[in-house]
């Protein structure tokens, strides 16, 4: 179950603003989910929220197109 990862521009800007260790945690969580389907994922209508260290990534998952789009990243704790 492998998905292609797409980054929305605002999420990418936020990603580059993160401390390198925080960015690595987000990157690892998104890649792990896209490759294996594993991760702390919750449904918060109309999007999915993936826990990634001290941040959450808001995702749109398109099973038909096999893509995961990261819409935004925000601090969760």
Helix and strand layout, with pairings?
Blueprint: E1 4-7, H1 9-17, H2 20-36, E2 41-44, E3 47-52, E4 55-62, E5 67-75
Parallel strand pairs: 1-5
Antiparallel strand pairs: 2-3, 3-4, 4-5
Q: What proportion of the residues is helical, as a percent range?
A: 25-40%
pLDDT averaged over residues: 95
Shape: globular
β-strand amount: 35-45%
- Poorly predicted runs are none
How many individual domains?
A: 1
Order of helices and strands: EHHEEEE
Number of helices: 2
CATH superfamily: RelE-like
Say what the CATH topology is.
Answer: YaeB-like fold
How many strands? 5
**Biggest β-sheet: count, sense, barrel?**
5 strands, mixed
- Quaternary structure classification: single chain
Q: What is the CATH-assigned architecture?
A: 2-Layer Sandwich
Gyration radius, to the nearest Å?
11 Å
CATH class category = Alpha Beta
Global structural class: alpha+beta
Query: How are the strands ordered across the major sheet?
Result: 1-5-4-3-2
Tell me about this structure.
With 77 residues, the protein is an alpha+beta fold. 34% of the residues lie in helices and 40% in strands. The chain has a five-stranded mixed sheet with strand order 1-5-4-3-2. The longest helix is centred in the middle third of the chain and has 17 residues. The chain is globular and about 35 Å long.
